[in-house]
């Protein structure tokens, strides 16, 4: 954890162009999701603000474009940029929340598994093994198709596929941590298991957790987008970026590309930013995870 | 070796059993399939009869028992929609999916391994940094979006390649294949590229990491001191040692490709199992979903098994036990 | 037969690291005559191994050969192209590495790794190559050589692997073997076996050897001449018996005093005080002065040049030890 605040970390960060670029992307996207709705001209979900006359306007710099709609409009006259801003909030919300859920559940299971090796450990790790031999996308797709759609279901599905990575990472770190003498000393000193886990083990597994979490947010955003694209993700009333791309698919063949191209491009840069920064964190904080 | 194979087969059976339980339980939570098979204007009595016919009136446990014994007897249920055996439906479409997945992974490997070897052997060159940035972009891409953009560019705007279907197919060894005709290739290339991108990036990164590790080893220096050529050192001495993690990821990626084929097939209207799965999910065609999941589960455990065998072929230090 | 095989003049190999410039080899000169064993001695970090790798131009960035000549059999290796060098590597000059556990490729059989050497440097056909590999394995003392060809490195012990590595180095009939700490990673009991084996095999073949080691005891057994290195520079060189009996440089004296002698229980082991200085931060003057019991103000001012002292000895010291002192 201290590694994060060290001057060497900051020094390396300042020298690492991809990391700076990645985090700049993230800051821009973060601001956009936070204050974006104030900046765009319309609320695309307020029907009174929509003009059907303005449907399928191409981006502003193309012939027939309208300066009010920088990235063009869709079939209902909704500003694509505004849709992206609102959609990005949903995508980011899902990515971050699913990360938080799977982090808490996975870390808890990983700590228990590593600390109390034995039956519990075998059960958790066997489940993890079986789950890991299936692609997370397929598991998520299956869960969505079995239990129905909606944001809550997406979060459940993502948590269900995401906990394994945390459990594995944390278990590994826990196993190596409890070998160390100070844990033995704490035991001898009469500290309870719970206290040892919280006070001594947990702080030491934080570094890999931060690294894994960064990458996981990107993965979750991509899986959510794929699910929504397939129509088993978020509902049409709360469209994420992936659903926007799906809606654009239907009109793509009539040559209207901007309603799908820009939301997708946005997903790409968002995830790219996360991955650039995550890569840097991994190299800096935990070279073993490479 | 025999003992190992038996042990692995038992493990595989256990995994498949667990999967069958999970699949069955999940499926029994989703809606009442009886409404899938009866006409909308059916009477209560007709509904009850259909329910009995489907075995839905029994306890969950005996339903599973019937499900399992049927599975073991090769009876995988009939599609509610197509009114034919679900297994037949899937097997009929399986060659299309496998064909696309194999083209994609071949494409990905052929591009990724040389690039990964280059980037791993010369980590500080600008070209290597470019390759790495590109690969990171590759794993950040939403695959479905790439497919759409390819369709727009090559099919809508330039009408250069077709956007859907398999094109002309030829029967070969009883399988209908697209890759034997030029028309088939023009149909398969866009979906295969779409599918390949993420895999390409991942295989590339693993290959590079492995090469970087291997190139530091003494035996590489020793090979250089013997006077071996750079090419032989990279591909003869280096790559074979770097291949072990690549093979792991190769197996996992094969599984991922089958999963992501659902999306690619949906975009390109490729008549494979993935599109069938998505269609079946929309229609609530439960038997087809079940068979699809059981079959892919089987394919995945089989891939894992093969990967473990391949390890022993690459690395003499690993012996099966 | 006493003509020069290898002549190194003013070799400088530097490493451009983030921490600063490391002058691992800084103006080293020595020669090797045909059929002769020359020992390169010094503490770890003294640049001994880098010289070995420099001769075959196996220095990777951030390292670079900055200056000097490496004349082998009348030709300067520094000027050769990479392709020309490949014929020299393994063919004319072969290397034996320090750690036999890591210098063989784990995924290929011993036979294949031996065969590679012959394929690269001879025109022999397959049966002839195989026969030669078998004979060579027998020469280095590996029994059941024929069946061992199909074994993998991990099926061998450390000592056996080093025999294999030596066999590979000798296979193509090289005229110079560079052995980089060939016994350091081995058990003490195996060490002397391997050394004797190398000595015998090399003299039977009339090859020369550069033996890189930190162990003066090994050198005294093996080498005809000794080159002592400190901080990338030659501090003393000469015939082995002269260096061992009456060294002129205080550093060599220190090295000799730190060797335990079983025969002489009264002998007090003495360490050289201090440690090897940070090679990136050497100022002017003699780099050994801070550890030297004879250091004078002059030593901090001016770096001593390598100059003849007596008999065969050259030393780089302002105040060399007299024969009677040493």
From TrEMBL, chain A:
Membrane topology per record: Multi-pass membrane protein
Alphabetical UniProt keywords: Cell membrane, Membrane, Transmembrane, Transmembrane helix, Transport
Keyword Cell membrane: yes
Residue spans crossing the bilayer: 20-40, 93-117, 137-166, 209-236, 256-281
InterPro entries given in the database record: BP-dependent_transpt_permease (IPR050366), MetI-like (IPR000515), MetI-like_sf (IPR035906), OppC_N (IPR025966)
SUPFAM superfamilies per UniProt: MetI-like
Pfam families xrefs: BPD_transp_1 (PF00528), OppC_N (PF12911)
Occurrences of domain ABC transmembrane type-1 (ranges): 88-278
CDD domains the UniProt entry points to: TM_PBP2
Main location: membrane
Cellular component annotations (GO), alphabetically ordered: plasma membrane
Keyword Membrane: yes
One GO term of the biological process aspect: transmembrane transport
Subcellular location per the Swiss-Prot or TrEMBL entry: Cell membrane
Extent of the signal sequence: none
Family: Belongs to the binding-protein-dependent transport system permease family.
Protein name, entry field: Peptide/nickel transport system permease protein
Organism: Microvirga guangxiensis
Top-level taxonomy: Bacteria, Pseudomonadati, Pseudomonadota, Alphaproteobacteria, Hyphomicrobiales
Automatic annotation (TrEMBL), chain B:
Pfam family, one: BPD_transp_1
Protein keywords: Cell membrane, Membrane, Transmembrane, Transmembrane helix, Transport
The ABC transmembrane type-1 domain, residue ranges: 94-311
InterPro entries: BPD_transp_1_N (IPR045621), MetI-like (IPR000515), MetI-like_sf (IPR035906)
Membrane disposition: Multi-pass membrane protein
GO BP term, example: transmembrane transport
Cellular-component GO terms for this entry: plasma membrane
TM helices/strands, residue ranges: 12-29, 100-119, 131-154, 185-206, 242-269, 289-314
Localization: Cell membrane
Matching CDD domains: TM_PBP2
Main location: membrane
PANTHER family attached to this UniProt entry: ABC TRANSPORTER PERMEASE PROTEIN, DIPEPTIDE TRANSPORT SYSTEM PERMEASE PROTEIN DPPB-RELATED
Family recorded in the similarity comment: Belongs to the binding-protein-dependent transport system permease family.
The name this protein goes by in its record: Peptide/nickel transport system permease protein
Organism encoding this protein: Microvirga guangxiensis
From TrEMBL, chain C:
Chief site of localization: membrane
Gene Ontology MF terms in the entry: ATP binding; ATP hydrolysis activity
Pfam families in alphabetical order: ABC_tran, oligo_HPY
Cellular component terms per the entry's GO annotation: plasma membrane
Residue intervals of the ABC transporter domain: 8-256
Compartments, record wording: Cell inner membrane
One GO term (biological process): transmembrane transport
Topology of this chain in the membrane: Peripheral membrane protein
UniProt KW keywords: ATP-binding, Cell membrane, Membrane, Nucleotide-binding, Transport
Sequence similarity: Belongs to the ABC transporter superfamily.
Protein name as annotated: Peptide/nickel transport system ATP-binding protein
UniProt organism field: Microvirga guangxiensis
């Amino acid at each position: 954890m201290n590694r994060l605040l060290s001057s060497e970390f900051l020094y390396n960060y300042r020298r690492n162009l991809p990391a700076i670029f990645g985090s700049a992307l993230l800051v821009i996207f973060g601001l956009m999701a936070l204050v974006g709705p104030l900046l765009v001209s319309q609320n695309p979900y307020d029907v009174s603000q929509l003009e059907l006359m303005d449907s399928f306007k191409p981006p502003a710099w193309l012939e027939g474009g309208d300066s009010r709609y920088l990235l063009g409009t869709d079939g209902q006259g909704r500003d694509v940029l505004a849709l992206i801003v609102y959609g990005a909030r949903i995508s980011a919300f899902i990515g971050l929340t699913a990360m938080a859920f799977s982090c808490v559940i996975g870390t808890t299971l990983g700590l228990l598994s590593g600390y109390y090796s034995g039956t519990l450990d075998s059960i958790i790790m066997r489940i993890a093994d079986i789950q890991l031999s299936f692609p997370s996308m397929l598991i998520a797709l299956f869960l969505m198709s079995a239990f129905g759609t909606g944001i809550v279901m997406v979060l459940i599905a993502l948590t269900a596929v995401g906990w394994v990575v945390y459990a594995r990472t944390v278990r590994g770190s826990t196993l190596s941590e409890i070998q160390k003498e100070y844990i033995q000393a704490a035991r001898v000193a009469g500290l309870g298991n719970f206290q040892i886990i919280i006070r001594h083990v947990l702080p030491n597994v934080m570094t890999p957790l931060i690294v894994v979490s960064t990458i996981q947010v990107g993965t979750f955003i991509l899986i959510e987008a794929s699910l929504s694209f397939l129509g088993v993700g978020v509902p049409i009333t709360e469209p994420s970026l992936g659903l926007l791309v799906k809606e654009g698919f239907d009109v793509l063949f009539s040559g209207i590309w901007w309603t799908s191209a820009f939301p997708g491009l946005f997903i790409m840069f968002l995830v790219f930013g996360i991955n650039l920064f995550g890569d840097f964190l991994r190299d800096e904080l935990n070279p073993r995870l490479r | 070796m025999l003992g190992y194979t038996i042990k692995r087969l038992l493990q595989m059976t256990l995994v498949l059993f667990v999967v069958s339980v999970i699949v069955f339980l999940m499926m029994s939570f989703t809606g009442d399939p009886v409404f899938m098979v009866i006409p909308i204007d059916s009477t209560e009595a007709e509904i009850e009869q259909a329910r009995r016919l489907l075995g839905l009136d029994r306890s969950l446990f005996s339903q599973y028992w019937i499900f399992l014994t049927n599975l073991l007897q090769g009876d995988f249920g009939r599609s509610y929609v197509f009114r034919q055996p679900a297994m037949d439906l899937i097997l009929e479409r399986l060659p299309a999916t496998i064909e696309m997945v194999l083209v994609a992974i071949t494409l990905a490997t052929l591009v990724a391994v040389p690039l990964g070897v280059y980037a791993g052997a010369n980590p500080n060159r600008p070209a290597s940094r470019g390759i790495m940035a590109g690969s990171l972009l590759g794993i950040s891409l939403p695959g479905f979006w790439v497919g759409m953009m390819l369709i727009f560019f090559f099919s809508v705007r330039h009408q250069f390649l077709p956007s859907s279907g398999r094109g002309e197919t030829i029967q070969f060894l009883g399988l209908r294949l697209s890759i034997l005709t030029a028309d088939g290739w023009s149909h398969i290339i866009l979906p295969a590229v779409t599918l390949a991108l993420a895999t390409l990036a991942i295989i590339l990164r693993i290959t590079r990491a492995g090469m970087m590790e291997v190139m530091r080893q003494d035996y590489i220096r020793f090979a250089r001191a013997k006077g071996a050529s750079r090419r032989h050192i990279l591909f003869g001495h280096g790559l074979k040692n770097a291949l072990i993690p690549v093979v792991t990821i190769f197996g996992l990626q094969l599984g991922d490709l089958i999963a992501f084929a659902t999306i690619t097939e949906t975009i390109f209207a490729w008549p494979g199992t993935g599109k069938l799965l998505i269609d079946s999910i929309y229609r609530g065609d439960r038997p087809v979903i079940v068979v699809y999941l059981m079959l892919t589960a089987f394919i995945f455990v089989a891939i894992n098994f093969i990967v473990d065998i391949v390890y022993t072929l690459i690395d003499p230090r690993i012996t099966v036990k | 037969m006493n003509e020069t095989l290898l002549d190194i003049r003013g070799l400088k190999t530097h490493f451009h690291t983030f921490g600063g410039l490391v002058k691992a080899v800084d103006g080293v000169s020595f020669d090797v005559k045909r059929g002769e064993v020359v020992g390169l001695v010094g503490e770890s970090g003294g640049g001994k191994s880098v010289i070995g790798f420099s001769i075959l131009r196996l220095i990777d960035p951030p390292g670079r050969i900055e200056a000097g000549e490496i004349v082998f059999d009348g030709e300067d290796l520094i000027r050769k192209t990479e392709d020309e060098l490949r014929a020299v590597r393994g063919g004319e000059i072969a290397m034996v590495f320090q750690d036999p556990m890591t210098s063989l490729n784990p995924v290929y059989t011993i036979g294949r790794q031996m065969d590679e050497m012959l394929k690269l440097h001879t025109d022999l056909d397959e049966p002839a190559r195989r026969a030669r590999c078998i004979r060579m394995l027998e020469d280095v003392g590996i029994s059941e050589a024929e069946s061992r060809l199909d074994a993998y490195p991990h099926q061998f012990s450390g000592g056996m692997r080093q025999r294999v590595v030596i066999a590979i180095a000798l296979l193509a009939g090289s005229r110079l073997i560079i052995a980089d700490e060939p016994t350091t990673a081995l058990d003490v009991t195996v060490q002397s076996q391997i050394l004797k084996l190398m000595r015998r095999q090399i003299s039977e073949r009339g090859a020369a050897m550069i033996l890189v080691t930190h162990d003066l005891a090994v050198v005294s057994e093996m080498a005809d001449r000794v080159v002592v290195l400190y901080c990338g520079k030659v501090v003393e060189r000469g015939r082995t018996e002269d260096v061992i009996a009456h060294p002129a440089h205080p550093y060599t004296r220190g090295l000799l005093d730190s060797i335990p002698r079983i025969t002489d229980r009264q002998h007090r082991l003495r360490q050289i005080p201090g440690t090897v200085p940070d090679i990136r931060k050497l100022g002017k003057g003699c780099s050994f002065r801070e550890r030297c019991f004879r250091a004078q103000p002059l030593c901090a001012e001016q770096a001593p040049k390598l100059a003849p002292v007596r008999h065969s000895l050259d030393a780089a010291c302002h105040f060399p030890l007299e024969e009677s002192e040493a």
